[in-house]
Queue: 2 jobs
Job 1
Amino acid sequence: MPPNPTAGRVAVWRHLKKIGAIYLQQSVCVFPANSAVRRDLAPILTRIREASGEFHLLPLRKLDPSEETKLIQQFQEQTANHYQEIIENCEVNFTKEIEFETFRKNFTYEEAEEIRAEFEKISDWFERVRRRDWFGAANMSQANEWLTRCEGMLEKFEAQVFEFQENQGTRLPTAATQRRRGQRVLPKSKLGSRKAS
């Protein structure tokens, strides 16, 4: 990529890392050779061309077994770190938020919607990491368990909100009412049916 503007180089680096790149040195990264990676790479390569940048796609064949093991370990470590970040996000941020809002009895529909949106964001994050977990990284099961736990906490909080609103004589907005008001209806997560692999 051209040295300027820097934003273009940063964007390419960020997108490559997002789809699971391992950097061996500056501007040299490695991916497993599979169709999913090639599909994810296509728009990034297009962006490089449009910015008058250059790239080379070089297949790695007949790697020394020790070198192949090193690369696999790097992929596993990178993905395990992502799973760990998800665990910490669930354990610290998400859990504390529900505990705090429960403590101050902030049982409003708006708060429940905000927390569910945050849960859906974490769930999507987990799915992105899981899709690029090519070599069975550590921490996946723990991250999945934490998501299931968070979903249970969320459903309990939503039930408290519903009960509080019912007792106050104010029903939660129905889906039809939300649509009339231009509000987004978030789907219920299916994480409860996911099995850790």
Job 2
Amino acid sequence: MRVNDSLERLFKEQYVEILSLARARLARERAPISTLTLAHELYLDMSTRQGLSFASRQQFLAYSSRAMRSLLVDMARERIAQKRSAEVLPLTYGESVPDCTGTPEQLVALDEALSRLGATDERLMRVAEMRIIMGMEVADMAAALGVSEPTIKRDWQRAKGYIFEALGSGP
């Protein structure tokens, strides 16, 4: 089976969940893109990559979270380039998952904070992006990363603290 056939089959199996996760993400984002478009852009992006293979549904969703983050950040950077004088709105945080609603500048700042976190601790960055970008649950993150749920909870607390500090926000 060709890689694209395997990816196509996996994407079809998880399509409803990908749409649901994209819809939840876009509900908090001011991206000028529809849920379907984001899901289809994700598929197109993934289909151009060589050697993708996923051992589980959770690993596929974890990779999808990273790819969606990249797509949304690229779109935000394009909007920044088009509109340099965007009004800055306060970046707010929900109780359990940071709410990334705001301007393209704020999304780029979040991306930079996640990248700096990844340079320090890759797993913390992956936990943060799975939680923030995709809204994944603790059990799914634990399965995707092959660690225990208590480890994910500790990692999330550390990652969240780092992001709050990096963005100059209080919890």
